[in-house]
Amino acid sequence: MRHFVSIIGQMRYLMLFLLLFIVTACGSKPTPDPEAQIREIVAATLAALPKSTPSPPPSPVPSSTPVNLAGLFCEYQFCIGHPSDMAYYDVSAVTSNQGTPSTYQTGLMAAYSGNLLMQLMWQFSPGAADPRFLLDLILEDGLDTSVGTPEVKLVRDMNVVYTSITTTATPILPFGGAAAWTCGDRVFAWKVYTLDEASPPSLFEAALDRFTCNR
């Protein structure tokens, strides 16, 4: 009996020891630092944010063109000069039943002022070295008459034919000039009606001087 009481006493001491150990262990656990936890949350949030896209480098400012656009017609992959108080309009788009404008391959333009009437036409004609066929086409049968022998010359590797003309197309503009030339895979023809017979050659030279085409 005494032995049994002794065992119970020992068990009580053991349970008391375990209870004290548990309380001591729980009391020794460090309390988390709120500021440290906040720093960790902020760091994790910043790490999860998407990275911003870098700004593209600034585009260079385009330099001004050295070409004077006054009195210059540019369309259908060619440019040609004309008096600055006039402007070409698309005759093909106006006269066609479908309102079909000119194209790279064929076209007809006109410009008019009180003392000038100009026409410009072109056709796709690869390999055509002699542009006379288009010169004959731009001259109106029964209205335009070539004067003298046509002048043939090479201008910036373009075969050019020019002739002075008289015309009865309009009584107020009886004189004029007409020309045709080859550039790339197209043939161009130009014509002007004027008040006097002296101005057509200089008008054509001014037009051709600013002429360029994509080849």
> Which architecture of the domain at 72-213 does the CATH hierarchy give at level 2?
Sandwich
* Total of helices: 5
Nearest-integer average pLDDT? 79
The level-1 CATH class of the domain at 72-213: Mainly Beta
Choose one word for the global shape: elongated
Strand/helix succession: HHEEEHEEHEEEEHE
Please state the CA-atom Rg, rounded to the nearest Å: 47 Å
Strand percentage, roughly?
Answer: 25-35%
Question: Which strands sit side by side, in order, in the main sheet?
Answer: 3-4-5-9-8-7-6
Segments where pLDDT lies below 50 for 5+ residues? 1-9, 13-21
The separation of the N and C termini measures 126 Å
- State the total count of DSSP E strands: 10
Under CATH, the topology of the domain at 72-213 is which? Jelly Rolls
| Percent range of helical residues | 25-40%
Largest pleated sheet = 7 strands, antiparallel
| Main structural class | alpha+beta
What does this molecule look like?
The protein has five helices and ten strands, in the order H-H-E-E-E-H-E-E-H-E-E-E-E-H-E. It has 215 residues and is an alpha+beta fold. It has a seven-stranded antiparallel sheet, sandwiched between helices. Strands 1-2-10 form a three-stranded antiparallel sheet. It has a domain at 72-213: Jelly Rolls (Sandwich).
Secondary structure layout plus pairing:
Layout: H1 2-28, H2 34-48, E1 72-75, E2 78-81, E3 89-90, H3 91-95, E4 106-113, E5 116-124, H4 132-138, E6 144-155, E7 158-167, E8 175-183, E9 186-194, H5 199-209, E10 212-213
Antiparallel strand pairs: 1-2, 2-10, 3-4, 4-5, 5-9, 6-7, 7-8, 8-9
